Each structure stands twice: as structure tokens, then as C-alpha cells.
UniProtKB/TrEMBL annotation:
The chain crosses the membrane at residues 39-60, 240-259, 265-284, 305-328, 340-360, 367-390, 396-414. Keywords: Membrane, Signal, Transmembrane, Transmembrane helix, Transport. Its main location: membrane. InterPro entries: EmrE-like, SCL35B1-4/HUT1. Belongs to the nucleotide-sugar transporter family. SLC35B subfamily. It is found in: Membrane. This is Adenosine 3'-phospho 5'-phosphosulfate transporter 1. Residues 1-23 form the signal peptide.
Length: 430
């Protein structure tokens, strides 16, 4: 039976296309396989939560609730709408200074920590990448070569699974470990949550139309839209070498895409759909990182950021899934296929553990070391995917991949040189 969201979209189609006399069932069944329509239905589900929330927040702000409010709900509303503190203390300054202090531990201890961080990041995200491709591109329950089995199609449910476990892990960390006093209005996390949901949805959905190596290279090239979003959202300025390496990355990705064979994806429309979804992923992900940078101006830790973003992500995704009737359908798929249930849970565990390893690695060794580890992870992910799932890369495509990773390492090298130069100049100014 069609869900509420499907019926609303059907009514809109009949309103604007009255000449299209199509039966309700065939229309819904056919359009359910179109990724753009699924995207619009998801957005409608999010809107049923975001729009009422917007009006509530506007009402509390206009009515000076902070001055005249009282009662049992006052602390909750104050935290969600107004926050607890001003942006007076920057946590980033504290964390950077703590990393710059002399290391009291032995070189062996630091080496073991680095191996632990590198191994944790590689295992978490390589396993996550392999499972992601397995879930989205392969079927479950195939008893014989003639029986194709059943494919899982709801990317939004996988996003929810990842976020609910990440919310649990970050919540436990906030309880068990001392955190700075939280000051940001909670509703501000919803912007990053929405863009994070959409980027993750595009990431899963794109694998229906493109290969995993292509997706990995697209992620590597997201420094370009991140720079654009940085100029638009945060008004940042960039050095010449950043533009040069961004150009190298775009050239390498173009070489790889143009050299790819079309045997696996003969349809031009399908390939075009995959590129459009990838562009959506990069745009949404770029907005997420820049918005989170702005949120870090409040006094908060990375774990608090993780908790706030995943809290709203869970609220939005579970609301949309329930409205579409897809939540219980996905649970039924899990009960029919225990292998999928194991893969979905392990996928979520790898995602949550990977986020914790990210925070720990940056805290212990800084962003430069973390970037090198993750760049190597992307290269290993392409090799592993080609080995496990039979993706072919010709000489031109391989050269394009090499250009991309060369540009990424040049960025790390140039950034570390500039940081060292600034630190050497700083004492002369004092």
C-alpha cells in the first residue's frame, strides 16, 4: 500500500499534469525506481520535520522566550533554540596548543600510537568501503546462478543505521569522558545533519550507477568544491599552490573518467545519473565540512559535534523512513537475509569506529599525518575493489589515478611546509 509521501507526490503530479491519466499503482511502482523521485520523496519527509521546527524556533525567538520563559520545558527550549554560551572560547585553539606541546612519551610509544591509528583507520574504512559496494551492488539470497536473489535498494535506511550507532557511541563518550560546557544552539546542528544525510544518501545511491573506484576518485576531488564552499560560506582565501593542486586533481579525475570502459554501464543515461549523484555528494559534503567549521567556533569537542549532528540525522531519517513505510520494509529484508543484517551492522560499526579514529589521530598527530593516512587508504580502497569485484583500469586511467594522488600528497607537503614556516617566523614577532 502506498505511503503518505508517495500519495502526496502522486497528488502533485496529477495537479500539474492533469492530462497524464495513469493508474496509481503503475505510476508509483515505476517511479519508485527513479533515483530523482526517491530523492524528492526523502526531501518531503525531511520537510515535514524541518518546516514545523523552523516555525517553532522563529516563534520562540520573536516572543523573547529567553527572558520570560519558565517551567519544565524551559531548559530544553533554551538549549535547543538559544544555546548556553557565546562563541567566546575557541576549542580549536586549545587543541592545537595541546598538540604543539613537547611530547613527554618515548619515540617507541609514539610509533606504536601511529601504527595503531593508521591500522584502525585503514581497517575501519577499507572494510566499510568493501561492505558498501557489496550491499549496494550485489544481491542476497541467490541459491543458484539462475536465481538472481533480492537486492537492497533503500540507501536511506543504511544512512539511518550508520547514524544511530554513531549517535550511541558519541553519546557514551560524552557521558564517560569529560567534555567542555556545551554552548551552541542545538538546532544549528540540523543544517550539517541534513547536508550530511544527503551526501551519505548520494554516496550509497551512486554505487548503483558507477564503479567504486570512480566514487573514490570523486571523493578525492572534493577539495575543489570544498574550496568553493569555503569562499561562499566562510569567506576563506587560498594560496596559489592550492589552486594548482586542485587543477591537477580535476585533470587526473577527468583522465580516469574518460578512459573508463562502458561495458559495465552501457546506458548513457545511467552514467549521467551517476555523475549527477556524485556532484550532489560532493556539494553536500563540502557544505557539511564548512558548516561544521563554523560550529566549532563555539566551545565544543569533536565528540559533541558528532553527537549533535547524528542526533538530528537520526530524527530526520527515521521520520522519513516511517512516513514512506520503508523502515519496516527494510527490517523485513534484514529478517529474510541474515547476511545483509550482518553486513549492515558491521558497516555501521566500521563507520562509527572510523569517526573515533579520525578524532584520536588528529588529536595525537595533527591533520597532516591524518591526511596522509586517509590518502593512502583511498589508494588501497581502489586496489582492493578492483581485486575483489573485478573493476578494470587501463593505462590512461591508472595514470589519472596517479596524478590525483600525487596532487594530494603535494597538498600535504605544501601545507606542512607553510605551517613550519609560520611557526619559525612567530617567535621573531614576539
Amino acid at each position: 500500500m502506498p505511503s503518505l509521501s508517495w500519495r502526496v507526490w502522486l497528488a502533485l503530479v496529477q495537479l500539474f499534469l492533469p492530462s497524464a491519466v495513469i493508474a496509481e499503482g503503475p505510476l508509483l511502482d515505476g517511479w519508485h525506481d527513479v533515483w530523482f523521485f526517491r530523492f524528492l520523496v526523502n526531501m518531503l519527509g525531511y520537510a515535514t520535520i524541518i518546516v514545523p521546527g523552523y516555525f517553532l524556533i522563529s516563534y520562540f525567538k520573536r516572543s523573547n522566550y529567553l527572558d520570560r520563559g519558565s517551567g519544565l520545558c524551559y531548559p530544553l527550549i533554551k538549549t535547543c533554540v538559544f544555546g548556553g554560551e557565546d562563541k567566546s572560547v575557541l576549542l580549536g585553539d586549545v587543541s592545537v596548543s595541546s598538540r604543539n606541546e613537547p611530547d613527554s612519551g618515548s619515540s617507541l610509544k609514539q610509533a606504536l600510537k601511529l601504527i595503531f591509528c593508521a591500522a584502525g583507520l585503514q581497517v575501519s574504512y577499507l572494510t566499510w568501503g568493501v561492505l558498501q559496494e557489496r550491499v549496494m551492488t550485489r544481491s542476497y539470497g541467490a541459491m543458484s546462478p539462475d536465481h538472481e536473489g533480492e537486492s537492497f535498494k533503500d540507501s536511506q535506511f543504511l544512512v539511518f543505521m550508520n547514524r544511530i550507532l554513531a549517535l550511541t557511541v558519541s553519546g557514551l563518550c560524552c557521558i564517560l569522558f569529560k567534555q567542555p560546557r556545551h554552548g551552541a544552539p542545538m538546532y544549528k546542528y540540523s543544517f550539517a545533519s541534513l547536508s550530511n544525510i544527503l551526501s551519505s544518501w548520494c554516496q550509497y545511491e551512486a554505487l548503483k550507477f558507477i564503479s567504486f573506484p570512480t566514487q573514490v576518485l570523486a571523493k578525492a576531488s572534493k577539495v575543489i568544491p570544498v574550496m568553493l564552499m569555503g569562499k561562499l560560506v566562510s569567506h576563506k582565501s587560498y594560496e596559489y599552490w592550492e589552486y594548482f593542486t586542485a587543477m591537477l586533481i580535476s585533470v587526473g579525475v577527468s583522465m580516469f573518467l574518460l578512459s573508463s570502459t562502458t561495458s559495465k554501464h552501457p546506458s548513457t543515461v545511467t552514467t549521467f545519473s551517476g555523475i549527477i549523484i556524485l556532484v550532489g555528494y560532493i556539494a553536500f559534503d563540502s557544505f557539511t565540512s564548512n558548516w561544521q567549521d563554523n560550529l566549532f567556533k563555539y566551545k565544543m569537542s569533536s565528540v559533541q559535534m558528532m553527537f549533535g549532528v547524528n542526533l538530528f540525522s537520526c530524527l530526520l531519517t527515521v521520520g522519513s523512513l516511517l512516513e514512506q513505510g520503508a523502515f519496516f520494509d527494510s527490517l523485513a529484508f534484514m529478517t529474510r537475509h541474515s547476511e545483509f543484517a550482518f553486513h549492515a551492522v558491521l558497516l555501521s560499526v566500521c563507520s562509527a569506529c572510523g569517526q573515533l579514529f579520525i578524532f584520536y589521530t588528529i588529536n595525537q598527530f595533527g591533520a597532516a599525518v591524518f591526511t596522509i593516512i586517509m590518502t593512502l587508504r583511498q589508494a588501497f580502497a581502489i586496489l582492493l575493489s578492483c581485486f575483489l569485484y573485478g573493476h578494470s583500469v587501463n593505462i590512461v586511467g591508472g595514470f589519472g589515478v596517479a596524478v590525483v594522488f600525487l596532487a594530494l600528497f603535494l597538498r600535504v607537503y605544501a601545507r606542512s611546509r607553510m605551517k613550519s614556516a609560520r611557526q619559525s617566523v612567530l617567535p621573531q614577532k614576539v
